[in-house]
Amino acid sequence: MSQTIDPTVVEQVTALARRARTASRHLALMSRAEKDAALLLLADAVDAAATAVVEANAEDLERGRAAGMSASLQDRLRLDETRVAAVAQALRDVAALPDPVGEIVRGSTLANGLQIRQVRVPMGVIGMIYEARPNVTVDAAGLALKSGNAVLLRGGSAAASSNHALVTVLRESLAAQGLPADAITLLEEGGRDAARALMTARGHVDLVIPRGGADLIQTVVRESTVPVIETGVGVCHVYVDRAADLDKAQAVTVNAKTQRPSVCNAAESLLVHRDVAADFLPKVLTDLAGAGVRLHVAPEVTEYAEAAGAAYELASEEDFGTEWHGLELSVAVVDDVDEAMERIRKYGTGHTEAIVTEDRGAARRFTAEVDAAVVMVNASTRFTDGGEFGFGAEIGISTQKLHARGPMALPELTTTKWVVEGDGHTR
Amino acid sequence: MSQTIDPTVVEQVTALARRARTASRHLALMSRAEKDAALLLLADAVDAAATAVVEANAEDLERGRAAGMSASLQDRLRLDETRVAAVAQALRDVAALPDPVGEIVRGSTLANGLQIRQVRVPMGVIGMIYEARPNVTVDAAGLALKSGNAVLLRGGSAAASSNHALVTVLRESLAAQGLPADAITLLEEGGRDAARALMTARGHVDLVIPRGGADLIQTVVRESTVPVIETGVGVCHVYVDRAADLDKAQAVTVNAKTQRPSVCNAAESLLVHRDVAADFLPKVLTDLAGAGVRLHVAPEVTEYAEAAGAAYELASEEDFGTEWHGLELSVAVVDDVDEAMERIRKYGTGHTEAIVTEDRGAARRFTAEVDAAVVMVNASTRFTDGGEFGFGAEIGISTQKLHARGPMALPELTTTKWVVEGDGHTR
Asked: CATH code at A133?
């Protein structure tokens, strides 16, 4: 059994979850038109409150700086007028997306005349546990509302003031619209116990989605009794095959590593077929070095790293399984596609794995045998993204196999219900 | 944290799971024709071993009788020649079902020319934890094989000899076919710790499915760190609306309760609208009493139960949330569809809920607002079944919202993978 959770906190969180459940019943019955209208008004409310939100955010930043928060974390936390406008716009973008609720996924009329149909319905109450990124607060609230769900938000304490300001605006707007404010609830009290109460609110919360680093996600998976969807940890590989077009390989590798190195779909490890290593490595390592990428290399790659003028070190075993979150990359040479796939099995996290090859057979084997949410052929790992896939906004990239795998957009925030209509049918 | 699990058992189970993982890679690449041929040979092998299986089963029955096992549990455990033939036939039936693996669920060509497609792929390794029903052993093995998954089976100890005999036959047949025997593995040692090692074999096992009573399922949900699909607990209601056709209501109620009372989709509670109680209750309670149903009634139903000559008692609060697994039924009168739905929220388990009504509005509200895997209008709850829905065999009825809800057939034993093909695409 888990360590004891403060029973007062459990009671508070349960009470909030109950109110969210009541609100969710209202949301579940709203039409698309009603939900879209609500989202547009929420967006206007966020825009109107921009000054107050930026002020609240300044308090968070001030505390962060005093506590020695890193520059990159401060950047994730920061909201200026432009970013607040982008947060509001995200709500309008969600309003423009199709409503998944009510979609008939499949159905038939049985031989006995029974009509069965599987209909998409909201989950009910969704819990989000995330770090100090206040834009996630509004994104999650918008996606939850559009998919007919109430949401319980547990954001990082470093963003407490920003989240409080944003959720206050959203709740006041809901109330002014005659909608239940409890559809969007921020868990502000109870410290870590509030997060743990959320994870164990079985029956009150239908789904918990953690968004953040590997530690956060592992904690949520271990401690939750509510179903969890794991998101986002990505140790993504680029494998450059013997039959690769080396120009494409160069472009894909550099893009996958450097276009936005802090995110989960950036590449963390480069695997190069032995037969093309001497041709490919000098060029790609020179470009990577030029982009400021620090290399963690297998022994046989050191001479290339040295020649390319790269900052490098000999890779430890652990380095090959590391998500760098920055301009670092592990590099190894492999004998064939089997060794590449073996390394991916060993070090990968089932997020995105890419092969660069012109060989149909190699591509076919790689796509069939690599066990990951997304397998790329001749394309950058950076394409694993709800927006890039054409789904509009997403709530994260699922790296697990149950329910959803890959970018989680609106339909993945719903479940289904079978509706069966008869005329007094008995067995 | 959970109580400590014997580390030797953890090691044993992990080793078996690793071998299952290796086998699963082979299964994942098999064509439908290869899998169907294998299933037919497995069926022949079970038929050929019928005498040995029945003898092994006799040992289990002997131990069961000595331990005072109830007659109904003995019946579930029993395998005679006819039942072994049915078990073999079930494998042939699975061979005849379509293969879910490789189905392209959706896909598109993006504006930039990237081709994305979402393809159904096997889960990998599935763990089954179940009670003393040896037919489940073969059913689960067959469904897992057809969906390209390896399976780790943890059956009830009361069926140990039967399961050993059946799994030995299946593994020997696989090996004789040149297929990996580790695709079907029985966890025979380690006692309860083996089940707990299975539930916590995160990374080695992709999914655990418990099949059995409420206690078993709750234990698995609480102790698992591997994703779980809850199946089967059903406190199903039949609500007879004011606008019900009382003949249909009579047929549906009696069928839902008595056609096979021990299973999860049997009705456990009858709710009758106040306006039709005086007309409906005398008739239906007389029929139910005639079928030997014992009633647990709300105070205002006692006079009807008495007049119908039924065996009855005053229902406790707990009775209304009880899955009887037999010829018992709770009965209450409600003021309207809202009170019926309120009771279903309070006492239901999200399995199957039925309304009997000729009123479109009431049916529409009930199907929209009741939160269950299956909602029936004018049809018996007994129709919630993979076979009845036209899916062929099923592995259970999911009562949770994630991944699968309702009858779980072959597609629900798969996950998906996104395959993205480009030509050197970068962001």
From this structure: 3.40.605.10
